Fold this protein.
Amino acid sequence: MAAAGVVLVTLQVLAPDGAVGDATYLGALGLASLVGWVAAVRCRGQERRAWIMMALGISLSAAADLTYSVIYWTRGVEPDVSVADPLWIASYAALGLGVFRLTPGRENARGPDVDAIIDSLVAAIVALLVVWEVALEDMVTDSSTSILARATWSAYPVLDVVLLALVVRLALLHHRNRSASVLLVGAGIASWLAADLGYLVVTAEGALVWLDVGWMVASLLLALAIVARRHEPLSSAPALTDQPVRERMWFVMIPLLAPVAIDLRSHMDHTESEPLALGTATVALVALACIRGHRLLRAAERAREAVHVSETHYRALAAHSSDAVVVLDRDHRVVEASGNLARLVGQDTSTVLGESGPEALACVDCDTLRSYLDSVRSTPGGVAEHEIEVRHTDGDRRWLSTRMVNLLDDPAVAGIVVNLHDVTDRRRAQDELAHQAFHDSLTGLANHALFTDRIEQTLRRTARTGTTATVLYLDVDGFKSVNDRLGHDAGDTVLREVADRLRATVRSADTVARLGGDEFAMLIEADHVEAGEARTTAERILQVLSIPVDVGGQLIAISASIGLATGDAGSSAASLLRHADIAMYRAKADGKARIVVFDEQMGAEAGHLVRIEADLPGVVERGELELHYQPVLELATGRLAGFEALVRWQHPELGLLSPDRFIPACEATGQIVPIGRWILETACASGARWRDAGDGPPPLTMAVNLSAVQLSTDQVVDDVRQALDRSGLDPGLLVLEITETGLVADPVAATTRLRALHELGVRLAIDDFGTGYSSLSYLRQFPIDILKIDRSFVDTITADDELPPIIRGLLDLARTLDLDIIAEGIESDVQHEGLRREACAMGQGFLFSRPLPAPDVDRLLANRAQTSEPARSS
Ligand code: C2E
Ligand code: CA
Ligand code: CA
């Protein structure tokens, strides 16, 4: 189309007259109408009607020209007024409507753009004034032509002015986002107006040709605009801005000069300008300028108001938030602080202004905070998050999480913004968890893990200092009988009393630990102990323990057997502990209540630990191992849900050994692999046998403990698969219990192996949860289904009221991670009730049943089938 248009326009310029001139002129208009219609009809979206109007305008104008030409050809004269005129006038109307509609959505969205209307009016007034001065005045007052002709002719300049105003409005509304189509419309209308204006002022014959070219080009450009719009993405539809455009004020102010300019010109030409027209125009322009100015001021005022409102809003938010905000300058001095600082650290906002930030916050470790601030200050826009400990003015210590943002370069802030949030509760729960991980909950003494760690540290130190470390291993004589005669509570009282006395005997630097049951240990660092001093300490302990313990008014005599072992840089924590343990057993064997110092001879003579290690090979083949099964119950209903298999060793001389006595040796010697395989097969076979002997449709599950060493071998997956195949137990009924330590040792290998196990369909449980290295973050990484809350946590439930926060935290955590929970070691009704209330689903413990040999389980299941009573035995 563009090419055809160029050809037609060129022809028109070369041969403007005669048949060729008429043909090219009408041809161009016809082409423009045709193309315009085709493109407009295909347009989509809200603007479709605007473009159709535009096409209508082009073709009305073409029709008018054709009509005019036909009249000229048939009559041979150019008529003043004819039927062509209504068509032309209609074409202006259609084009005007089209341009007006080109800014859709504007009106609906935010009301009409009054400023754009005013600006268009200004343009219209100036144009009208010019047109009036140039042509209209003479035309209207020329009494030699008919009224109809005068009215018709003056209609065109007026319509031109309206069209001009509409184009100006279009340009203003699209001033931020001009698309090709809008530009083409602007160019087309401009060409049209130029030709119209030329027609009014130019009288020379030669110039008239260029007017025809102007109208041709106008029609072609408008048609092209419609085509262009079709190819623009709809999203580029003008995004209109609301901004009061200050620069546009000039657009209203400068036209005020127009009347003056016209007056000046008339003066120079020695002609009279029409005072009424000039006066009216001036008044109108001034009025519009006033309105425009007023609106601009109001918009500015409103913007200020909005800023004020949002500032008040944010101030109110800050004042009522539980967080505090402090702004520091480059030297870390407080320049601003929000009111709730008083709540967080007890400091009043007004007193901290100008003070150094770390001091204002009463930091426990000001230097560290200062170094954090220094590093934030060094990067513009830098952000850092840390937790800091502060001293509240009420004497309390609090933990605050801080977020520091360097906004020194932001002129609105010009400071380091520090957001403070109280996280004391979370920190305490975390600390408690960490404490639980390393301490015995009954006595508060170090546990096995912490004690081993301390021995290792001390041994490392002895390598540097050349000194020695001594481990004192202590077992309370006859404790079992206290427990059996007087009950668990009495037993616990005795253990707590022993712990207190041990603590009182040593210096605070020495570590006292409870290793389990009635076994205690002490680490005496050699760098402040003379040779023989360990023995003196042990004697002092025997002495303080010889005082009877008061248990509810009843005096109970106790004594202890103590083993001592000394090591140096060449020893390991495990060997040192074992030697002390061997010595302690020797003390017991020698008649209790005495001290035995380990010597190499003793090791060679093979204490029971050495026996155990030596006797392990072939233990499966000899049939000395047996599994006991502890019932797992649904806490809400008492329904039996399944069992946990726990291994025992019926030692021909040492009697029934608990797993704690021999599993470590199994792990150390690698015997755990064949033994673990036997446990898996036996437990799965029992599980398959009992699966349907429960109370209801969900079949009974079977849990088996996997040692970390087993998990570190590739074989474990095959072993589990084989046990399932041989027994026919559904994989979904087998639960494998793994401790956190088993996971953290080699998390990558553990992950792949656990995935493989999970793919077999078995479920995985974290055993003794909370006592390991609190690998909360690891949890998400492993395909875990069940969390077993360790007995030490359940032990802390003592009263009938609220559960200790740490337990609720663990239950919450499990729920968040969508894990099942089993509480271990439930010994009392209070514990059972509390856990049930907090929606802990499953539990096991002596309250319901101790681990039972298989025949007892058979009997239990048979009884339940008859009575369907919840399992409960002492
Ligand atoms: P665990 O997996 O945490 O097993 C629970 C232990 O708590 C069992 O001790 C059980 O008898 C005891 N227990 C259950 N309810 C109560 C209660 O209400 N109060 C008290 N005070 N204790 C309760 P057990 O059988 O001596 O096992 C000790 C640990 O030896 C087990 O702890 C487990 O880590 C390990 N173990 C047991 N059997 C196996 C096994 O077949 N393979 C492996 N690798 N380890 C095993
Ligand atoms: Ca377990
Ligand atoms: Ca456990």
Summary: Residues 235-244 have pLDDT under 50 and may be disordered. The first helix runs from residue 2 to 14.
